Amino acid sequence: MARWPDAFPARDNPGGVAHSPNRVLSERILVLAPHMDDETLACGGTLLLHTSKKDIYCLFATDGAASPAPLLPWTGQVDPDLGNLRRREALAVAAKIGVPASNLTFLDLPDGALSGRRAELVTALGNAIATIKPRFVFAPFRYDVHPDHTALNVAARTTLRATTAAPGLLEYFVYHRLRYVPGGDVRRALDPAALIVVDTAPVAAEKRELLDCYQSQTTALYPWQERPILTEESLRQRCAEPEFFLPADPAGPMSAGFASHRRQVQLACLATRFGKRPKDRALAFLRWIRAR
Q1: CB neighbour class for 198 (10 Å; exposed up to 12, middle 13-18, buried from 19)
Q2: Distances from the Cα of 153 to the Cαs of 11, 69, 109, 144, 245, in angstroms?
Q3: 136 to each of 80, 132, 153, 246, 248, how far by Cα in Å?
Q4: Can you give the pTM of this predicted structure?
Q5: pLDDT digits 0-9 by tens, 38-55
Q6: Mind listing the domains of the chain with CATH numbers?
Q7: I need a surface site. Which of 112, 128, 164, 273 has the fewest CB within 10 A?
């Protein structure tokens, strides 16, 4: 079996609903990001390679004010300016890429609560699409570990189903590495022929510079943090791999694009979502007790 990421080499894929990477890199695009940094983690190389930076638009759904946050509330607190810091970081990333600041939209919805704000999201997305008129809309993968990510995917699908001459929907991958799926990566369950793969090796160093702008995520910002949200290992992996996108029909079945193991991927995402944080809290509590 080919070694990752060689199993999915960069290529054109004009068949079906998939589009050539060249089109993605030249058309007007709107990236929907649940949090500031998701757009860079999953699409940063693609944004750097895009031929017209003025045709790149980003919409950030939440205020980002819940990351980082202490696992044990009594051990520390978050700076009330964290949301503004993350906005400044996103603006710095856009400036490095060459995207005009006016092309960024910040909805400032509560971090971690998008699933309860669907009506507001759909209205905001509809207005943004009508104003920007993108050729492609990028949204998080339908089965993601973070509930804000899946909520934004649902809102994007709902909006595009109701949009006349809707732009193409491309799903991107943030939390794609999962222990409980074959190969440890949700993308391995997808049909390789359905994926758009962008070779970002030529801009790997530049992508790392973009990620370094997110100091709130790449450094231990507070004394109570044991490690950054984004570790050095995860940053290296993000910059070494190509970027993958799954073209999706907003009105199509959720099984579309899968070659195998869809239910396993879905269950693994749910298990991680509802199991990891309680486990991390329990371990943090044990460490806190031992340190007393």
Answers
A1: buried
A2: 26, 24, 15, 9, 13
A3: 35, 11, 14, 12, 11
A4: 0.92
A5: 999 999 999 999 999 999
A6: 21-251+260-291 (3.40.50.10320)
A7: 164
